[in-house]
C-alpha cells in the first residue's frame, strides 16, 4: 500500500507479541481433584466499526505506531484474517495492492490482465482504528475525500462496499467481509467480519517495488510472521516481489 516512509523511525520497536485485551481468551478452572475441568471461552469480540485490514507495509505494528498517534490502541494488532479469492500484488505504482474476485470489480479492475485462481487468498493483520487515526491513514493512502459518491447500478460493486468513486485518489476505501484466521493471543478464527481495505482500482498491473518500499515490506513480513501471519504464504506470494 502507498505509505511513504517517515523522516525518522522510532528508536524502540513496540511490543508486537503482547495479546490484545479485545481478543477472545480461554480460561480453565479446577475446583478440586474430583471436580471436572470447566473451560470458559470468551465470546467473539464485537466492534462498532469495521476493523482495518492491513496487507502491505502496515502489516508492521511498528510502522502503524508512527502513524496512528491519536490513539495508541489503533496500532495494536488484533487478528490475522483472510480475503478469499482476492489477489495480492505489487502494482505498477510500486506499492502493494489487492485485486478482488472477478465478480466484485470496478474501474480499471475490470480490465486487469492478471491470472486469478479460485484458491487465491490475501492474508492481512486487523487493527481497530480510532476515527482520527483512520483519517490519518486516508491521507497516507491518498484517498480522495472529494470524490463523487458511488451510484447504485452504475457499477457491479454496491455502494455499500465502496461508498465513493476513487476519483483522483491513489486508493479507495472498501468494506468487505473477511475471515478471521486467528485472534492474536486468543482463540482460532471461524468468524466472518466486515473490514476496511484500501484498494487501488486503477493501477492493477504488475510492477517492481519502489526501492524505499522494500525494507519496509521486509520489516512488515518479519513482524507480522512473529505474531502469527502465515510465513509460507508470505514467502510464496510476497517474496517474489520483495527481495531480502
TrEMBL record:
Disordered, as annotated region: 1-45
Keywords annotated in UniProt: Lyase
Name of the protein described by the UniProt record: gamma-glutamylcyclotransferase
Entry's Gene Ontology molecular function annotations: gamma-glutamylcyclotransferase activity
Low complexity compositional bias, start-end: 7-45
Chain sites annotated for binding substrate: 52-57
EC number(s) stated in the UniProt entry for this protein: 4.3.2.9
Taxonomic path: Eukaryota, Fungi, Dikarya, Ascomycota, Pezizomycotina
Organism: Aspergillus ellipticus CBS 707.79
Entry superkingdom: Eukaryota
Amino acid at each position: 500500500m502507498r505509505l511513504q516512509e517517515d523522516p525518522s523511525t522510532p528508536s524502540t520497536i513496540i511490543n508486537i507479541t503482547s495479546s490484545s485485551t479485545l481478543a477472545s481468551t480461554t480460561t480453565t478452572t479446577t475446583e478440586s481433584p474430583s471436580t471436572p475441568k470447566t473451560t470458559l471461552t470468551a465470546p467473539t469480540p464485537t466492534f462498532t466499526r469495521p476493523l482495518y485490514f492491513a496487507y502491505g507495509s502496515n502489516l508492521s505494528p511498528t510502522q502503524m505506531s508512527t502513524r496512528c498517534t491519536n490513539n495508541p490502541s489503533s496500532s495494536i494488532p488484533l487478528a490475522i484474517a483472510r480475503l478469499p479469492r482476492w489477489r495480492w500484488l505489487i502494482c505498477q505504482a510500486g506499492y502493494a495492492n489487492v485485486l478482488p474476485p472477478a465478480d466484485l470489480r470496478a474501474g480499471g479492475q475490470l480490465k486487469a490482465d492478471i491470472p486469478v485462481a479460485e484458491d487465491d487468498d490475501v492474508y492481512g493483520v486487523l487493527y481497530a482504528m480510532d476515527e482520527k487515526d483512520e483519517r490519518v491513514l486516508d491521507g497516507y493512502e491518498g484517498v480522495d475525500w472529494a470524490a463523487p459518491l458511488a451510484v447504485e447500478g452504475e457499477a457491479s460493486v454496491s455502494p455499500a462496499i465502496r461508498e465513493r468513486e476513487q476519483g483522483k485518489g491513489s486508493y479507495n476505501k472498501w468494506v468487505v467481509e473477511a475471515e478471521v484466521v486467528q485472534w492474536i493471543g486468543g482463540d482460532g478464527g471461524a468468524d466472518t467480519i466486515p473490514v476496511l481495505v484500501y484498494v487501488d482500482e486503477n493501477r492493477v498491473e504488475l510492477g517492481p517495488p519502489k526501492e524505499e518500499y522494500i525494507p519496509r515490506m521486509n520489516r512488515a513480513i518479519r513482524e507480522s510472521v512473529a505474531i502469527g501471519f502465515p510465513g509460507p504464504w508470505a514467502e510464496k506470494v510476497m517474496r517474489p516481489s520483495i527481495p531480502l
